[in-house]
Amino acid sequence: MKSFVLAPFDIALGLELTGDIARTENRLRLHYDLFDEFSEVVIPAAHSPQRRNNLWQTTCFEFFLGVQNSPQYWEFNLSPSGDWNVYRFESYRTGMQEELTLTQLPFEFDAIEKSCTIDFDLSPIIQADQLLNVSITAVIQTLDEQITYWAIQHCGAEADFHLRESFVLDI
Known about the structure:
The protein is mainly β. The chain has strands at residues 2-8, 15-24, 27-36, 60-67, 73-78, 84-89, 97-98, 107-110, 115-121, 132-141, 147-151, 169-170.
């Protein structure tokens, strides 16, 4: 298990994002904890989960998985509402398609604790013997409609979660 701390691209006082990630055989477990000192974060209302686009326009937990030594990668979006999506890319921001081999993502968001946990089998998209490069990120919207971008490491002049240099965890 590896622990992480996400940093905002811009200053976001009163917020902290931490968590841990583990890969056992070919199962991935990722847990986020959002500390919101002043209850300033917009949390989309929970409803029956659906695959949806544009989840990053409000509070959304994200992570990116890339197979080591390959330009291909996947972007996972998890909304506190229960909505989700997974996109596959051929290379940096190229060839974006919904990853249709995944028909659901088993994750839970605890609105009281403001935590998000996903635990799922990677086998439909990734072989167990493939080393993964991971970037863990989040988009956080505050009540004053400010959008902040969080990552383990920001590598560009602007917030850009797709930069492969930011895939800094190996699992």
